[in-house]
Structures are given as structure tokens and as C-alpha cells.
Amino acid sequence: MSEISEVTYEGMMIWADAVREAGSLDRDALFEVLESGKTYDLPAGKVSIDPKTHHAIRDIYIADLKDQVFEIREAFPNSPPEDTQLVCDLIADPTMNKHFEIRL
Fold it and tell me: Where are the domains of the chain?
């Protein structure tokens, strides 16, 4: 499984959970669930959504691959999306997120 397929799967599972919990596809109802601090136990570990950026807070690993086995050299648990936080603050300015709209 590649990183792209893994994070796509995780994103869909988080979105589906938010829809179930909100009982709606309403944008504000989904944001309320996603910004609640809920943690999801997913293939790469624990993941939550940063309310400030709507990006993932997740464990990050630096590893070597030897004989088809990953040897973790360093782990950075519960890492926020610091690069995105430098340019995005949806708490201070919710209008920064103008591109998300669900249409049926």
C-alpha cells in the first residue's frame, strides 16, 4: 500500500465518520465533528484533525527499508501540520476555507 492510497483511505474513513456522527452533509455540522478533537485509530496510527488548518495531526516516522521490513529510526508522535499552520488559521479567519462545499 502506498502513502497516497493510505492517506486517501484514512481521509475517506474520517469523512465517513463525520457524516455518520453529524447525521448530515451540512458543511458546518461536518466541521463541528472534524474540529472536535476526535482521534481515529487508522493504519498508520492515531490521527486527528487540526481545527486551525483542517489538516491531519499524525505520527511521523523516519525509517529504513531492509529485507522488506521497515526499521524505524525516529518517531515523531502526534505531529501537527506546522508548515500549514504558518499560513492558515481557520479559527481566526474561517473565511480562509472558501473552496469546500458539498453539492448534491
Answer: 3-92
